[in-house]
Design goal:
Elements: E1 2-13, E2 19-24, E3 34-44, E4 46-53, E5 59-65, E6 71-82, E7 88-90, H1 112-119, H2 128-142, E8 144-145, H3 156-162, E9 164-165, H4 167-180, E10 185-192, E11 199-200, E12 204-211, E13 215-219, E14 231-237, H5 240-243, E15 246-251, E16 256-266
Helix pairs in contact: 1-4, 2-4, 3-4
């Protein structure tokens, strides 16, 4: 499947920015199951300072805010060829060892609610893949998808206690619980082609867990499925903070407002 993607991030400052630096993880990975056909990034109100691949092999761009800019616009667009591998991403590669993905972070650390959830899965330990599917279903059953009750800094246990959250919260709960059960897990940020619309308000987040013999396997807890050809992997990390599309700070006396627009659609290829 060939997907056409256009992603625009716009920051509006109430007063001109003095200076600032942004770290962008917006270029999709070239990995098993997806091939980047073309990809472009355009900047307004900012300039590129450096490019590199980080410790998770995420393509990263550092940009600086132009002094006096009243707004920044980052526009990414391109085409990605994807295939359906039943959520199988492949064997582990990269700079970080697998044990690194067993360590809990501030966003994934389990509490009583997550430990209780893990306790309900003990009977599935003989089949790790079935265990993870049961975990995914358990998270979705315990945490209703609802916008407006959590944000990027909400820990997994807090979302679990509240019983509501979004894809980021679902992924963090899944990751933290999987690690507690001895299974390496990581966060994925990327794009999902929706079946009922093209325009979206934000990108998507899901989880991957590593199983012996299978490698990394993707679980989209919010939708109750494994990733298929509609998914585009952009960045991975131990949690959202390590895979966030845009991070950084801008300096000035005013405040900033963020607006995001995203369009993902299938592109028909002439034979």
């Amino acid at each position: 499947m060939r997907l056409a993607i256009r992603h625009t991030t716009h920051y509006q400052f109430s007063q001109p920015a003095t200076r600032g630096l942004q770290r962008l993880r917006l270029r999709p990975k070239s990995t098993h199951g997806q091939q980047i056909i073309d990809w472009q990034m355009q900047l307004e109100g900012a300039r590129q300072e450096a490019e590199y691949d980080d410790q998770h092999q995420n393509h990263t761009t550092l940009v600086s805010v132009e002094p006096g800019a009243s707004a920044i616009t980052i526009t990414c667009s391109g085409h990605v060829e994807t295939s359906d591998n039943n959520g199988m991403i492949g064997q582990h590669t990269g700079h970080m060892p697998l044990w690194y993905f067993l360590a809990q972070t501030e966003l994934t650390r389990p509490g009583p609610k997550m430990r209780a959830l893990a306790g309900t899965l003990e009977t599935g330990r003989g089949d790790p893949l079935a265990l993870l599917h049961a975990l995914s279903q358990g998270v979705l059953g315990a945490v209703r998808y609802e916008i407006g009750f959590t944000d990027a800094a909400t820990p997994a246990e807090a979302a679990m206690t509240a019983g509501r959250g979004v894809c980021q919260d679902h992924a963090h709960i899944f990751i933290g619980t999987a690690r507690m059960l001895g299974i390496p897990a990581r966060y994925v940020s990327g794009y999902l082609m929706m079946n009922d619309r093209i325009d979206q308000e934000a990108g998507h987040g899901w989880a991957e867990a590593h199983l012996a013999g299978l490698g990394w396997v993707a679980f989209d807890v919010s939708n109750g499925i494994s990733a298929d050809a509609r998914y585009v992997r952009v960045a991975t990390g131990c949690d959202y903070r390590e895979a966030a599309p845009v991070t950084g700070i801008s300096y000035g006396e005013g405040e900033s407002a963020l607006a995001v627009s995203l369009a993902v659609e299938q592109q028909l290829v002439e034979q």
